[in-house]
Design goal:
182 residues; two-stranded antiparallel ribbon; alpha+beta; 5 strands
């Protein structure tokens, strides 16, 4: 991490503006079938255009993956957003309140490879987090917030240590201003 990153400033949101478990589950129940259907359509279109060869069969899985990435990374990052994010008034932002980079969203999507057990751990984690960030959000440096959310404040971006399942993780977080004691 360069010196500039160590002293950079980020934003944080009111807890009520950060999406909780129910809303995130609803978004996933919409976006997963849509991403799957889009992938099937892309593969079927390729099969319709290309002759049935070894090559056509070999590109099926990569086309499926590219379709998922296009939907869950590129579209989610855009102003348009995914169908689930539109339906439930959500957006994804980085620690500075802007659109996250493609690399951050790819890192966040990578967690899907850990399977359904990880998905449950991820959702449970966000219930106890002050910013309702799931582990994948912590890793990627993102927040999932209401579309109309505005930052509640700003603070320095710091590195915090978390220990989970015998592993140590370093995550960047925005430090909140200390509340005055009464």
């Amino acid at each position: 991490m360069s010196g500039d990153e160590a002293t950079s400033t980020g934003v944080y949101y009111h807890r009520k503006d950060c999406l909780g478990v129910t809303r995130r589950l609803l978004i996933d129940f919409v976006d997963v079938p849509v991403a799957y259907a889009l992938s099937v359509l892309v593969v079927m279109a390729a099969w319709a255009v290309l002759p049935d060869t070894e090559f056509t069969r070999a590109i099926t899985l990569p086309l499926f993956g590219i379709s998922w990435c296009a939907y869950l990374v590129l579209l989610k990052r855009s102003k348009v957003r995914t169908v689930g994010y539109i339906a439930f008034g959500a957006q994804i932002v980085d620690l500075k309140g802007g659109r996250p980079s493609i690399l951050r969203l790819l890192g966040r999507l990578f967690f899907v490879f850990f399977g359904p057990l990880y998905f449950l751990v991820d959702l449970l984690w966000l219930t106890g987090d002050a910013n309702r960030q799931a582990l994948r959000d912590k890793f990627a440096g993102t927040y999932v917030v209401r579309l109309e959310a505005t930052p509640a404040g700003s603070g320095p971006i710091r590195v915090r240590t978390y220990m989970f399942w015998g592993m140590t993780f370093l995550f960047r977080e925005v430090g909140r201003a200390a509340r005055p004691r009464t």
